[in-house]
Amino acid sequence: MAANGDYYKILGVSRTAMESEIKKTYRKLALQYHPDRNPGDKKSEEHFKKINEAYAVLSDKEKRAQYDRFGSAGFHQRYTQEDIFRGFDVGDLFKDMGYGSEDIFSRIFGNGRRGPGSGPGFGGRTRGGGVNMEDLFGGGGFGQQQAHAPQGRDLTMDLAIDFMEAVNGCEKKITYIVDGKRNEITVKIPRGISSGQKLRLAGKGEHGMSQAAGDLFVTIQVKDHPLFKREGNDVIVEQKIKLTETLLGTTIEVPTLNGTKSVKVPAGVQSQTRLRLKGCGIPHFKGGGQGDAYVKIIVSIPKHLTPQQKKLIESLAEEGL
How many other C-beta atoms lie within 10 A of the C-beta of residue 202? Predict the structure, then answer.
């Protein structure tokens, strides 16, 4: 349930809005679109979900900074649904409004199974009577019952991979310490993954009192490539050409992720111009298709001229060039 559009527009605030303004606006919208005020209204319920997702990001300094830096598309490549709502607790906020947040969120995000003494909504951990979104989205889906006994602690680690391993996908063996023991497992890295994205390995964390294990979250760090620069799912490669090639046009051989391709450079091309190679970029992390490659033209200006070259340039200058 990723919110469509700009989080700032969803909440109706500016990109420079203070935390207090964001919170005030969110309270107003949450009250307006709350399911109890709009029974059976699916559009209001859907908007209620969107404003909660937007607030979960913009009320968190780190997530907001990442969202501002990478934009919506880049942010969602780095943050999963679980990442967005981890630690997001609106229990006290909704109680101030006169609503029970556990019951509301169990209704709109999926009805959890109720057990004896479980109370309304989801089982599992809550803080201060509110709903902890980490529990709502943890476990692989909405509405799943959490373990009754304390679950083991989640573990986190970073994993560095090469640029082309991120492009094509790979498998990596990782070693980490869990419950005081050395553990080695193989992690499958999906193709198209980018730096900052996390892989969740269910049950690979520490064990709790009931032996219900937590999860292991692996944060991917992609190493730089000597030729290619990544922008979302697109790849940028710089290519230098001579001044004469700039003026007259030429054909150049350009390295891509899948080998070398011939690219026609039109006469009069300007330095920093990007020429697009459709479908030659990075595979989409989720779903089919892939990005594009862009050849960034850099005009090479000689620092020194031979006497003959200088004479020819002076002749061109006389001709008004």
Answer: 12
Structure tokens of 223?
Answer: 């190493």
Q: Which two tokens stand for residue 213?
A: 């294990």
Phi and psi (nearest 5°) for 156?
A: -130, 150
Helix crossing, 61-78 with 42-58: angle to 10°? 120
Per-residue model confidence as pLDDT tens digits over 74-117: 788 778 777 787 767 665 555 555 555 444 555 555 543 333 33
Task: Say if pTM beats, i.e. exceeds, 0.85.
Answer: no
What sign does the dihedral 295-301-303-307 (CA atoms) show?
Answer: positive
Q: Two tokens at 69? A: 């830096």
Cα–Cα distances in Å, from 202 out to 33, 76, 196, 279? 34, 21, 19, 34
Eight-class DSSP state of 213: B
What the block records as the tokens of 208 is 């709790």
Kindly report the CATH class assigned to 228-318. mainly beta
Alpha carbon distance 311, 321 (integer Å): 14
CATH fold, domain 155-222, is: HSP40/DNAj peptide-binding domain (2.60.260)
H or E segment at 155?
strand 155-161
Nearest to 282 by CA among 208, 238, 228, 214: 228
Given a cut of 90, whether residue 62 has pLDDT beyond it is no
Per residue in 205-231, pLDDT (tens digit) is: 888 665 678 899 999 999 999 999 999
Location of each CATH 2.60.260.20 domain in the chain: 155-222, 228-318
Please state at what angle helix 101-109 crosses helix 42-58, rounded to 10 degrees: 110
